[in-house]
Design brief:
Strand 2, helix 2 and strand 3 form a beta-alpha-beta unit. With about 70 residues, the protein is an alpha/beta fold.
């Protein structure tokens, strides 16, 4: 991992699969700690595991960004 984002925290919505997962992994490879957010807990937790497997740090939070209450939480 390089350190372009060392000391930074990235939040990626839709990170349970596809482009969101790719973005979360790229941020982790660049040194960021990543908050993985998705409506699907299984996919989000899988992304966290992938990041941790790279030696990075990540946490999952379930969020549906189309719902204001979820975003506020």
């Amino acid at each position: 991992m390089n350190s372009a984002l060392q000391g930074k925290v990235g939040l990626v919505t839709g990170a349970g699969s596809g482009i969101g997962r790719a973005c979360a992994l790229a941020m982790a490879r660049a040194g960021a700690k990543v908050v993985v957010s998705d409506v699907a807990p299984a996919g989000g937790e899988e992304t966290v595991a992938l990041i941790e497997g790279l030696g990075g740090e990540a946490v999952f939070t379930r969020c549906d960004v189309s719902k204001a209450a979820d975003v506020d939480a």
